[in-house]
From TrEMBL, chain B:
Function: Ferredoxins are iron-sulfur proteins that transfer electrons in a wide variety of metabolic reactions.
Protein name: Ferredoxin
Pfam families according to UniProt: Fer4_19
Named cofactor requirement(s): [3Fe-4S] cluster
PROSITE patterns xref list: 4FE4S_FER_2 (PS51379)
Coiled-coil portions: none
Keywords in alphabetical order: 3Fe-4S, Electron transport, Iron, Iron-sulfur, Metal-binding, Transport
Amino acid sequence: MTAQLPATLPITRGCPYAPPDEHRRLRDEAPIQRVTLPSGETAWTITRHEDIRAMLTDPRFSSDRRNPHFPLLAKGQRINTGFRASLIGMDPPEHGPARRKVVGEFTVRRMEALRPRIQEIVDQHIDAILAGPKPADLVKALSLPVPSLVICEQLGVPYTDHEFFQLHSSRLLSRLTPPAERKAAIDALRDYLGELIERKAQEPADDLLSRQLEQQDDREELVSLAFLLLVAGHETTANMISLGTMAFLERPEDIRKIQEDSSKTLPAVEELLRYFTIAEFAVSRVAVEDVELGGVLIKAGEGVVPLSNLANRDPEAFDHPEELDIERGARHHLAFGFGAHQCLGQNLARMELQIVFDTLFRRIPGLRPAVPLDSLPFKDDASVYGIHEFPVTW
Amino acid sequence: MRIVADTDLCIGAGQCVLTEPEVFDQDDDGTVVVLVENPEGGQVDSAREAVKLCPAVALSLQE
């Protein structure tokens, strides 16, 4: 089981549509095995769908990023930011009540109520694309501003400051950012959100941060929450919009399918989430007790890095997993994680993607890439996979 | 068949509501509400699907 493959993480994708060949070799030859991290520390990788689900629902694996053995994939990430743990870094019994305070903001019904506003935002951006020069950069014109505006409005963060947080978010998500710059980006965002929350305490408005302030006095916890939602709300959906559009443009028959029957768009979104799995390393854990997982003993203090992109192409979980089939029914994918920390914004992301794909191909039926797709600048150096720029024309 | 929901474990992911809104709902703080405790017909399969998708293992079935 613990074959001696010289494996290090992270590995560059190579093919923009698929996990790196080295990863596939990992899964085929030793689905659970030790790997070396950029810091020189070792951890376990797990690659099977079933093992990852089992680990992420097992309380003997901790999410606490302050644990000195927590596996980190960028050099210099283990820096003392003096930052309170956000939801993703909490364990029980702290995590449940903290998540419960905010999850009401993301219920299926709340998201449905946002639909008309999201549609309006998407339409305005497509108006601007149609009125502007060709080619347009899809990332700047649509992929990034749509989720960015939506999360800003929901939180109550002024969108006029978007260049500031987009810059700092992308620095945080790049694995190439030097430690000092990473800390500076965190500090800048934290100071900004701290001041914003102070202002909201004086002048509450109809937004998530103001409502949270009514429930709790712990400003530091609120800054942490705002930080998480702002950063997570920016790049993730944006990258799925770009990659999903690219995949659709290569498959005109799939565009026709969703145009003829819009009930097919949401299942298509699930398949795109599975296929690209952009936050492939988002759910690492550290064992706090000895645990046997998939026949391997993982000892207390050892890190575990699930490779969700491989689990989402596990032939045990998905038939013909390397094929993109928008009608397969892929809802059990792990692109939003699994367990108590599963993505808080998942239903917002689903709705944004559904509205974007439905609207984009209806309103710009002649949309096409302005450059060969294999020449696009893919985000091989970031914690969340995507495309830096995507020139399109019509 | 009876659906059992452990509301202490529920994390409000909403996967059950997306699967079968006639059987599952969420209250204002996101916690699952089981609308039909004993599903029948087509709702049986979707209840099974919801149990499989629940990330917090908060749902189970008594057959």
